[in-house]
């Protein structure tokens, strides 16, 4: 009886074969190949959405700046004018504390580009160069800005 019990306990302790382990590894690799690209695409979509939200928030701050000071900051003053009062004698109604707590960086850790007047006759333009950090591009590398907010 004792030998029969030890034979049974040995059969339970034999573990996994190399083939079983390889099958599990292949299944995990296939699942990873299918899931990881979807996760990375969602990260890129989230970054684009955050950039669009940042640009809208900056637009709101610029509009408040204009209401108080009757003009938008110049290109030279840039978005920093929304954080700290520029050295311009015509800016007389600047809000204490500014219009933004800090100049935000885009989701790819680059500064937003500000130009006043903007291209195409706009009063100003705010842009992020996207994932690649270069002007132009396609897909997630394309520019995100005031001119393209409703297109993405």
Q: What would your notes on this structure say?
A:
With 152 residues, the protein is mostly helical. It has a single domain (2-151), classed as Glycoprotein, Type 4 Pilin (2-Layer Sandwich), CATH 3.30.700. It has helices at residues 2-12, 18-69; strands spanning 113-115, 125-128, 144-145. Strands 1-2-3 form a 3-stranded antiparallel beta sheet, covered by helices on one side. It is elongated, with a radius of gyration of 28 Å. The N and C termini lie far apart (75 Å). The relative contact order is 0.12. The model has no long low-confidence stretch (mean pLDDT 83).
In a nutshell, what does this entry contain?
It is built from 2 helices and 3 strands. It is mainly alpha-helical and about 150 residues long. A 3-stranded antiparallel sheet has the order 1-2-3, covered by helices on one side.
Helix content: 40-55%
Q: Helix- and strand-based class?
A: mainly alpha
Structural domain tally = 1
Instruction: Tell the overall outline.
Output: elongated
What is the helix tally?
2
Ends distance = 75 Å
CATH topology: Glycoprotein, Type 4 Pilin
Beta content comes to 5-15%
Under the CATH scheme, which architecture would be assigned? 2-Layer Sandwich
Gyration radius (Cα, Å) is 28 Å
**Main pleated-sheet profile:** 3 strands, antiparallel
SSE topology string: HHEEE
Poorly predicted residue ranges: none
Query: Strand sequence of the main sheet, in spatial order?
Result: 1-2-3
Mean pLDDT: 83
Oligomeric state of the chains?
single chain
Number of strands: 3
- Classified by CATH, the class is Alpha Beta
Give the CATH H-level superfamily: Glycoprotein, Type 4 Pilin
């Amino acid at each position: 009886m004792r030998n029969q019990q030890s034979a049974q306990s040995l059969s339970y302790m034999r573990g996994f074969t190399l083939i079983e382990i390889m099958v599990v590894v292949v299944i995990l690799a296939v699942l990873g190949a299918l899931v990881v690209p979807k996760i990375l695409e969602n990260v890129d979509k989230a970054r684009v959405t955050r950039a669009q939200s940042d640009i809208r928030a900056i637009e709101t701050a610029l509009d408040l700046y204009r209401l108080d000071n009757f003009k938008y900051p110049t290109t030279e003053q840039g978005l920093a004018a929304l954080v700290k009062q520029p050295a311009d004698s015509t800016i007389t109604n600047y809000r204490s504390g500014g219009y933004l707590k800090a100049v935000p960086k885009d989701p790819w850790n680059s500064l937003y580009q500000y130009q006043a007047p903007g291209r195409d006759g706009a009063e100003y333009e705010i842009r992020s160069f996207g994932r690649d950090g270069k002007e132009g591009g396609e897909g997630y590398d394309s520019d995100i800005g005031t001119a393209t907010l409703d297109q993405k």
